Amino acid sequence: MAEERKLRMGMVGGGPGAFIGPIHRIAAELDGKIELVAGAFSQSAERSREAGERFHIDPARAYADYRQMIEAERKLTDGIDFVAIVTPNHLHLPVALAALEAGIPVMSDKPATANYEEVLKLEAAVAKAGLPYGLTHTYAGYQMVREARAMCAEGKLGKIRKVAVEYFQGWLSRPIEASGQKQAEWRTDPARNGPGGAIGDIGTHAFHLLEYVSGLEVTAINATLRSVVPGRKLDDDCNAFVRMSNGAGGMLACSQVAAGEMNELRLRIYGEEGSIEWRQQDPNRLTVKWLDKPEEIHHAATSYLSGDAKAVARTPAGHPEGYLEAFAVLYSEFADALIAWKEGKWEQGRRNSLPATLPGIRAGVRGMRFMERAIESNRREGWVEF
Ligand SMILES: NC(=O)c1ccc[n+]([C@@H]2O[C@H](COP(=O)([O-])OP(=O)(O)OC[C@H]3O[C@@H](n4cnc5c(N)ncnc54)[C@H](O)[C@@H]3O)[C@@H](O)[C@H]2O)c1
Known about the structure:
Layout: E1 7-13, H1 20-29, E2 34-40, H2 45-54, H3 66-73, E3 82-86, H4 92-101, E4 106-109, H5 116-129, E5 133-136, H6 143-153, E6 160-168, H7 182-187, H8 190-193, H9 198-214, E7 218-226, E8 237-244, E9 249-255, E10 264-271, E11 274-279, E12 285-290, E13 296-299, H10 307-310, H11 323-342, H12 361-380, E14 384-385
Parallel strand pairs: 1-2, 1-3, 3-4, 4-5, 6-9
Antiparallel strand pairs: 6-10, 7-8, 7-14, 8-9, 10-11, 11-12, 12-13
Helix pairs in contact: 1-11, 4-5, 5-12, 6-9, 9-12
The structure holds nicotinamide-adenine-dinucleotide.
Residues 12-15, 18-21, 40-43, 66, 86-89, 91, 109-110, 136, 138, 182-183, 186, 201 line the site of nicotinamide-adenine-dinucleotide.
């Protein structure tokens, strides 16, 4: 890294009791390229201040409101280099717009916005600002996902014929939102979550993983969405068939009422010669099955992996990496892209030069399009094109 100092991060969300904010903080700082210096960690000024204390930042930089943070930080000579967005979905667009309009790059958690109309506004704002915008589709940061992606790109499986991606969780099997469970409460409220329940929360991850690894695009979907838990306003279960840009067919299913499952994200891709299987709960292995050869298990951090996979290995083979490191891979790539941008090294004429491995605004638009198309397909009870 040519830059002498660490990049300064200002976080929005991630206050006391939050799920993903603490993960972002640890992951962003893991490689010594980034440090947390400011934040509007909560909608409550008091809780934001408390969070600032806990994170040992300058008390003056624990703000009551994200607009206040952006306004104050842009005037400082040592102000933040980017904003990390880890709030409920309905705030992703306003916070990103406020940052971009102030000339500050953005790293946002998914989904990019709460709905499709919003993401088009965001896409236009990112293009206009010409600033780095990264999106933490976490699973793109796993080493063996990079390996699977490289294998598909190199045609090792032959022409892809069938795909299957499942993302099953069980934590919303009961109406825990009614008892005020923090994460469930806003996720089941259309005003703060957006119109896609499980489909928006975890379906977008499954969809991204499928397109990211296969290198193909989904061109049509036939989805059934259900609210299994009585009284729930948003879907908590989805079954869908998909058609891919090369003619392959497949299935995408997600559920938050699959009792007993924790975070069972599983991807399978079948080509003419063989297939791959990756499971998030066993992330350091990639199963490769061949038509005419015995099955293989490929392990993380081994000598036979592709350059793309090796590039993100941190620990030796047999020393497992996981969720935090996957996030850190995305932050590390974002930091490098941001420094290149600061140094004026972004490609002339291109407004967004993030590396292809790092999800950005295009992934954000695809995800929201997927959610919108799935909802429309469910309404029409049939196939819809993208
Ligand atoms: N990439 C992943 O794997 C992953 C995993 C979990 C969550 N997420 C995404 O991260 C986001 C947050 O999810 P979560 O589960 O951490 O939610 P959470 O409810 O645990 O945390 C949200 C935080 O935002 C804060 N907040 C709310 N309004 C605010 C405001 N106006 N200003 C500042 N802070 C405010 C809350 O106080 C809380 O600290 C969601 O968009 C979710 O989809 C992504």
